[in-house]
Amino acid sequence: MTDISGISGNQLRLFIEKVECLEEEKNDLMENLRDVFAEAKSVGFDVKIMKQIIKLRKMKKEDVVEQEELLDIYKAALGMLPSFESLDEQAA
Amino acid sequence: MTDISGISGNQLRLFIEKVECLEEEKNDLMENLRDVFAEAKSVGFDVKIMKQIIKLRKMKKEDVVEQEELLDIYKAALGMLPSFESLDEQAA
Amino acid sequence: MTDISGISGNQLRLFIEKVECLEEEKNDLMENLRDVFAEAKSVGFDVKIMKQIIKLRKMKKEDVVEQEELLDIYKAALGMLPSFESLDEQAA
Amino acid sequence: MTDISGISGNQLRLFIEKVECLEEEKNDLMENLRDVFAEAKSVGFDVKIMKQIIKLRKMKKEDVVEQEELLDIYKAALGMLPSFESLDEQAA
DNA sequence: CTGCCATTTTACCGGC
DNA sequence: GCCGGTAAAATGGCAG
To answer: Which residues share a beta bridge with C4?
Structure first.
């Protein structure tokens, strides 16, 4: 039954069962997440806004900052920095 | 302390921290998942096929059959199924 | 005019405007695509199946066959193919 | 050949051909886009940064602003506004 | 030519 | 029950 066509059925089965196990854990977690949001909502919070806040907090943690220098060079070249006339004005 | 606009900051804070905690756990799990696939790949398995297998195992068997049937109906309607011609050829 | 840091703002501006123009055209096309699917759905077609069909038509036929074969090999290795038992049953 | 199992093969074919036609146009556009980026790169621009700029310009055009009031209420409740002690400090 | 990353597409979930 | 938005999967381009 196993080791057909040169692949190890047992090895494959182990990988797949491992994946399925991890996915089950993940589903549990996501259910917990939904529960938290549901409870928050039930006491009057706006879930959509909560998600925005969480996203903001996540973004802040990211580097982002690194390439901003280079970005500023290009912005300056484009006149997108405050001190220059901006591309946006032309677009408007 | 910060109950502004009728919202309890502390309560909201707790919800958000709970969410962020759960999301972190989820990220860990997903990293584990990636690792499993990476290892499977490194020993020669085809990750894409593995995912198809896992998806099939997740679906209810009746749904699998139903979808395959529908696909065949559409194929037939478009003449993509060789069945008819080949039947003719066999009959000839 | 704004050649700061050795970068030509005008040249960059032209590139970016060209990109934005092309992306706008692309957005129009994608909206058209959505409309087509929506209309197909409104007259009773299953959009998901339609997309499967389109993907199949895009693939080279040999690749389709190859992938199906590989899938069957994996299924066999996992005992997901009824073929063998049913053959035995038929022999019995 | 058509109208098997109660679906109209011709109708389906028309939908699908329309989709494939639109997708071809889209592929052409995307190739043009790649060409623009390639040329920009060839004269020394950083494609990644260009894409960031384009993304920024896109975001500015979006509303975004609407729900920011409500968002601020929550931020205030969380102490995320300048005048209050922030969640971030606690996280740090 | 292989692995990585970004983009795109698909599937899911909650809301109306 | 459909639609919208959001998260996951897959595809494709790019660099090394």
So the answer is: C7
Between the alpha carbon of residue B90 and those of residues A10, B75, D21, D24, the distances in Å are 40, 21, 36, 38
Contact B30, B38 (CB under 8 A): no
Q: Mark yes or no for CB contact C19/D7 under 8 Å.
A: no
Sign of CA dihedral C5, C6, C9, C15: negative
Separation between Cα atoms, residue A44 and residue A27, nearest integer Å: 26
State whether residue B39 is helix, strand or coil.
helix
- pLDDT band at residue A70 under the 50/70/90 scheme: low
Note whether D47 and D37 are within 8 A (CB).
yes
What is the DSSP code string of A17-63? HHHHHHHHHHHHHHHHHHHHHHHHHHTT--HHHHHHHHHHHHHHHS-
Distance CA D73, CA B9 (A): 10
Helix pair angle (D47-61, C9-42), 10° resolution? 60
CB within 8 Å of B46: residues ≥ 6 apart: C70, C74
Q: Helix count (H) and strand count (E) of chain D? A: 4, 0
D4 touches B: beta carbon within 8 Å: yes
Nearest-Cα residue of chain C relative to residue D54: C16
pTM across the whole model: 0.81
| Cα–Cα distance for residue pair B75/C52, rounded to 1 Å | 10
C contacts of B66 (beta carbons < 8 Å)? none
Judge: C49–B57 Cβ closer than 8 Å, yes or no.
Answer: no
Residue D83's pLDDT band (boundaries 50, 70, 90)? very low
Q: Which two tokens stand for residue D42?
A: 């060839």
Nearest to B77, CA basis, from A46, C72, C81, C40 = C40
CB atoms within 10 A of CB C70: 16
What's B13's DSSP letter? H
Confidence of residue A49 (pLDDT cuts 50, 70, 90): confident
Q: Which helix (H) or strand (E) holds C55?
A: helix C47-58
Q: Which residues of A touch D48 (CB under 8 A)?
A: 67
Report chain B's mean pLDDT, rounded to a whole number: 84
Query: Which of A8, A22, C63, A12 minimizes the C-alpha distance to B50?
Result: A12
